[in-house]
């Protein structure tokens, strides 16, 4: 039941909480000392009603179930203003310091040189899987923003992210959210192409058609597109596409893991400026589970 509510096993939560607890006091002092010309001493502030452990659980439950603040208020015995405040402060600690978010991993992977280093982050064949995913947002009130965020494919207003993962489903790279509209997957890729070691092969779908021609220095693998004139693919081509799909299913499973956190799969009700931080935390939680499987 705990895993269903939070996305982590009890042992995984205990391990990550030890790290959060060890850094919490220093984080709070730094946060409260940031204000210039502070008149009150550090510590003379409005104290939190919940202990740190309960606040971390509240953030995980909120992300996993994406319940309203009213329901969170009922479950944890707080008012809505305290729920918002508690979640915001814990997010600021968890994201940069306690989770293996893609931004941290990408800083390492783009500098890999030796084959032994590459094997560590791209095991089982030096493969990188790249794909995008969309998430609906509320219909913007502004007419221009409505046009910018409207996705003709989904028939909704959405934002889009590009992900790169390895064979173990670890998320190694994630873009900031993009306005969808008419923005194609390959256009997002060209504007935000991740740097990978030269030995790594990028596995993509037909949405990235043209990558082999535009980036000949990069090893890329695409399925074979059906020819013009409704000519069927040959048996060999169909078999190649079947093997390619079997390889690429890894990133579909990784995206499925992300969307088990309903804050990433349902209509995003929070302010859009928080979206990148939220998607970073969810990606970090997925990576943490993979790296600490128990």
Give an overview of the whole structure.
The structure is a single chain. The two termini are 16 Å apart. The model has no long low-confidence stretch (mean pLDDT 89). Helices cover 51% and strands 12% of the residues. The chain has 294 residues and is of the alpha/beta class. It contains 14 helices and 7 strands.
SSE blueprint and pairings:
Elements: H1 2-6, H2 10-32, H3 52-65, H4 69-76, H5 80-97, H6 102-109, H7 115-121, H8 123-126, E1 127-136, H9 143-149, E2 150-151, E3 156-165, E4 171-174, E5 178-179, H10 185-191, E6 201-203, H11 211-214, E7 219-221, H12 235-259, H13 262-265, H14 275-291
Parallel strand pairs: 1-6, 6-7
Antiparallel strand pairs: 1-3, 2-3, 3-4, 3-5
Offer a quick outline of the entry.
The chain has 294 residues and is α/β, with parallel strands linked by helices.
Broad shape: globular
Q: Give the SSE order as H and E letters.
A: HHHHHHHHEHEEEEHEHEHHH
Largest sheet, if any? 7 strands, mixed
Structural class: alpha/beta
Beta-strand percent range: 5-15%
Mean pLDDT: 89
Give me the Rg, rounded.
Answer: 22 Å
Which parts are unreliable, with pLDDT below 50 for 5 consecutive residues or more?
none
State the distance separating the first and last CA atoms. Answer: 16 Å
Tell how many strands the DSSP assignment holds: 7
Q: What's the domain count?
A: 2
